[in-house]
């Protein structure tokens, strides 16, 4: 084009020049631009923090502790746990809470564990499975495989409560159970009613606020193995059940220490959060499908006790709770069920050492629900990245959380016995 030619100052001429300029740009430039825009969109959508880690020299985030400096538990246990006073750095290619959440489920390669099953019969006629993984089952010593735990055994027992629709076969539970047993502790996974391949034998189903089963299991274990310190670890909904149970019974719990991993804390806040954004709605839908699968396993009872047509048409957890949980559990509305079952209000009543591990960027259990003020009765630690074992986290991160839990409880074991009811609380959000 001859630049000496006069340019007509009309919109048509301007658009004509603009069109010529656009078609003159090589196609691969457009491809690169679209690729860059897509990368920016996905980076923000999946909440990656790789660039932040890169610009900070992969130094990680320091664990920020808020604690009661006069607590003997802090001085005796937490102050000596170097992991809680260190830094945390996510694996660079897993620097997204959403990638971490799904990684373990698809690529985690859980360890091979061979549980010993015990059917537990509750006082109301309900039946569920207790899956044992003893420390000698993973130690390589085969001489004790067929032996039962003696009543005077002093080896600590860790009771594990799985999350929503999870059981002892879930990958993250296998990781947690295996690594705990590997440290020399006996593990028993208390499966929820109707899960783990055990049929429901009464009209009572588990829910986020049902503490009856864990109460009976812990009472039974304390009576059966009175010399063994009892510890309890709950994940996700299991963590909510655990904290609620500890708060309900206060000082009347035969537990030496507990750990709540990725608890939803306030179910009403969580129910609103999980419908807020696109990815959260996908989690909501995936969890709902899991609940519908659970209901399908027990269709004869659900079709009689609940609204089966509503269950089949449910597109969210709230829908399922409205048509199933509320009707079976005699709750007026889903909101009343969430308020009644939330564990956040029970935190001040907990009277045993409690370690709570959550993540500020958890894509399912929002940090908005964490009861920070209540947890300041003890010790609170937070890091920005995802490092809990909630909902199928990566192998590296799950082992990190496991080691922290074991280390803190192992040190507290030396100071607190099952019969000692302390009023100190330790809450640590990693």
Description:
α6 crosses α16. The C terminus is likely disordered. α8 links the parallel β8 and β9. The longest helix has 20 residues. With 430 residues, the chain is α/β, with parallel strands linked by helices.
Q: What Rg, in angstroms, do the CA atoms define?
A: 26 Å
CATH architecture of the largest domain: 3-Layer(aba) Sandwich
The fold-level CATH name of the largest domain is Rossmann fold
- How many domains? The number is 3
Quote the beta fraction.
5-15%
Strand order of the largest sheet: 4-5-7-6-8-9-10
Indicate the low-confidence ranges by residue numbers.
Answer: 379-404, 413-430
Q: What is the averaged pLDDT score?
A: 82
Q: CATH homologous superfamily of the largest domain, by name?
A: Alpha/Beta hydrolase fold, catalytic domain
The helix/strand series, from N terminus to C terminus, equals HHHEEHEHEEEHEHEHEHHHHHHEHEH
Largest sheet data:
7 strands, mixed
Q: What oligomeric arrangement do these chains adopt?
A: single chain
Task: Find the structural class using helix and strand composition.
Answer: alpha/beta
| Helicity, as a percent range | 40-55%
Count of DSSP H/I helices? 16
Give the distance, in angstroms, between the N- and C-terminal Cα atoms.
64 Å
What is the CATH class of the largest domain? Alpha Beta
The number of E-state strands comes to: 11
- Principal-axes shape call: globular
